[in-house]
């Protein structure tokens, strides 16, 4: 399982013991439902809608917990003042963090090539997102995503 965004179909058992469909959500959302609810979900690695392999909350947690637990990595603050020094510091810090990530992935059973390929793909995606919107925190509140998509070939045209 690659991430907490794996989609599952969720049902709960009502007071008379009937399974009641709740909806489709990601694994993290399903696990965040109140503990007093008896939750049953479709298997997160199977195609939604064609899946009759069901499991409870504990089995879902076992399958997904490693993917949704936040990873804590401390990144050092820059010391240098000029751009060249800061760039060199950034590369050294990134290398240390990436070596730690690769070692952790190797311990978990991932091949170095698999992880480095994934890192490259994610870095490209982050770079593209940053180029599209360098500072999303500065975006105005109350954006209208439907109106923004008009004229861009999206479903709302």
What is the gist of this entry?
The protein has 5 helices and 4 strands, in the order E-E-H-E-E-H-H-H-H. The protein has 157 residues and is of the alpha+beta class.
Structure description:
- This protein is elongated.
- Strands 2-1-3-4 form a 4-stranded antiparallel beta sheet.
- The chain is an alpha+beta fold and 157 residues long.
- It has 5 helices and 4 strands.
- The protein folds into 2 domains: 62 residues; 53 residues.
Number of helices: 5
Count of DSSP strands: 4
Helix content: 40-55%
Structural class: alpha+beta
Mean pLDDT, to the nearest integer, reads 80
Report the β-strand fraction as a percent range: 5-15%
Q: Radius of gyration, Cα only, in angstroms?
A: 21 Å
How many discrete structural domains? 2
């Amino acid at each position: 399982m690659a991430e907490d965004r794996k989609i599952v179909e969720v049902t709960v058992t009502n007071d008379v013991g009937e399974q009641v469909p709740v909806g489709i959500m990601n694994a993290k959302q399903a696990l965040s439902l109140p503990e007093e609810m008896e939750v049953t979900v479709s298997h997160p690695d199977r195609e939604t809608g064609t899946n009759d392999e069901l499991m409870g909350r504990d089995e879902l947690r076992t399958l997904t917990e490693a993917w949704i637990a936040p990873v804590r990595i401390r990144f050092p603050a820059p010391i240098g003042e000029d751009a060249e020094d800061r760039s060199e510091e950034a590369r050294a810090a990134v290398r240390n963090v990436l070596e730690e990530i690769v070692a952790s992935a190797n311990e978990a059973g991932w091949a170095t090539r698999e992880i480095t390929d994934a890192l490259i793909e994610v870095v490209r995606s982050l770079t593209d997102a940053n180029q599209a919107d360098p500072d999303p925190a500065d975006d105005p509140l109350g954006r209208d995503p439907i109106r923004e998509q008009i004229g861009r070939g999206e479903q709302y045209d």
